[in-house]
Amino acid sequence: MAIINQANKEIQVKIVYYGPAQCGKTTNLEKVHSDVETANPEDKGKMVSLATSSDRTLFFDFLPIEAMSIKGYKTKFQLYTVPGQVIYNTTRQLVLRGVDGIVFVADSQYDKMEENVESLQNLEDNLKTLRMNIKDIPYVLQYNKRDLPNVAPTDYMEFLLNNREMRVPSFEASAFKSEGVFETLNMITKMLLHKFINQGG
Amino acid sequence: MTPFPQIIEEDYERITEALKEFLTLSEASNALIVEKAGYLIVETGENPPFNTAELATLAANAFNATQFMADRLGESNFSSMFQQGDNSSVLWMNVEENSLLVVVFDASMSIGAVKYYAAEAAAAVAKQIAIAQERDASGGIDLAHLDPSSADAVFKKKESDS
């Protein structure tokens, strides 16, 4: 749950990028880190990556980033990724603790559809383990790697991943080229801030 | 799980006071209160030679990992953990359901004394958080005055250099 610190006039919010192995979660954070415009250099923290020797996420990536103040409250966002590899499920549960919003990054390549569906199911299962329900948590979908040749049509991906009663916003992206990265982040940010404002924190 | 309460000035001051007292007694260099999702709540100590927000996140996730270990071993939880380095050591201590105390101290110091005073500080902080929890349940902050339209396009992409 977001932290509201009235003493420091701060709202701290946790967003987790979730998805199958090598779908581009870490690349999303890297692009946010390298391409975000900040008024002050200190608004953007250092990106921390706990990765294996072969550059696969072992524990998580973490990027603290400060946005503008909203009526005197500093808004601080903590962006995390989870390790996508199936064996690291306990680690994914751990990183989901206290999550406020989720970006589900799906790999658009045809042969990755099964992994996408399994990962989304795994997200739901892990949230249940933490006594949370995906229906209660703002999340968006990102169909990544649209620049590759063998991608599935977005309608098909919508059918597979976004066919619930309540459809969520989805974005096409090529995180590698920094396309769709900010659109996705801004949508989840907007959904979260609206939620806090409407619920009074 | 009860969420971590909203902190007001009074809580912040009381928690800071407890941590400062702890630092004086224990001679540790830095003490942080960290929410277990990775948020830094309060920090005390002189000029930390590290990024405290970063340390808070790493500390919270490392501590949470040990709770999974406790579960696998049939323990309800591990209340503290300790790492000793060549120059600095770190002690993690559970405060209450949602937060922990992270202490950085000189590696030459005895862990026993630090742990003893840390337990007292953790109890004082837990007491204040319980007070905040009660207050939170009965009221909470009103964010209705915030303007939702200002939440559009919070993050902007830099113009390409090329």
Describe the model.
The complex is a heterodimer of chains A (201) and B (162). Chain A has 201 residues and is α/β, with parallel strands linked by helices. Chain A has one domain: P-loop containing nucleotide triphosphate hydrolases (Rossmann fold, 3-Layer(aba) Sandwich), CATH 3.40.50. Chain A has five helices and eight strands, in the order ββαβββαβαβαβα. In chain A, strands 1, 2, 3, 4, 5, 6, 7 and 8 form an eight-stranded mixed sheet that branches. The mean pLDDT of chain A is 91. Chain B has a single domain (9-138), classed as Dynein light chain 2a, cytoplasmic (Beta-Lactamase, 2-Layer Sandwich). Chain B has a five-stranded antiparallel sheet with strand order 2-1-5-4-3, with helices on both faces. In chain B, strand 3 and strand 4 form a beta hairpin. The chains are: A alpha/beta (201), B alpha+beta (162). Chains A and B meet through strand 1, strand 4, strand 5, helix 2 and helix 5 of A and helix 1 and helix 2 of B.
Please specify the SSE layout and strand pairing:
The complex is a heterodimer of chains A (201) and B (162).
Chain A: E1 3-5, E2 10-18, H1 25-35, E3 48-51, E4 57-70, E5 73-81, H2 89-96, E6 101-107, H3 113-129, E7 139-144, H4 154-161, E8 170-172, H5 181-199
Parallel strand pairs in A: 2-5, 2-6, 6-7, 7-8
Antiparallel strand pairs in A: 1-2, 3-4, 4-5
Chain B: H1 9-26, E1 30-35, E2 40-45, H2 52-72, E3 80-84, E4 88-96, E5 99-106, H3 111-138
Antiparallel strand pairs in B: 1-2, 1-5, 3-4, 4-5
Helix pairs in contact in B: 1-3
Output the keywords:
heterodimer; A: 201 residues; alpha/beta; eight-stranded mixed beta sheet; 5 helices; globular; B: alpha+beta; Beta-Lactamase; five-stranded antiparallel beta sheet
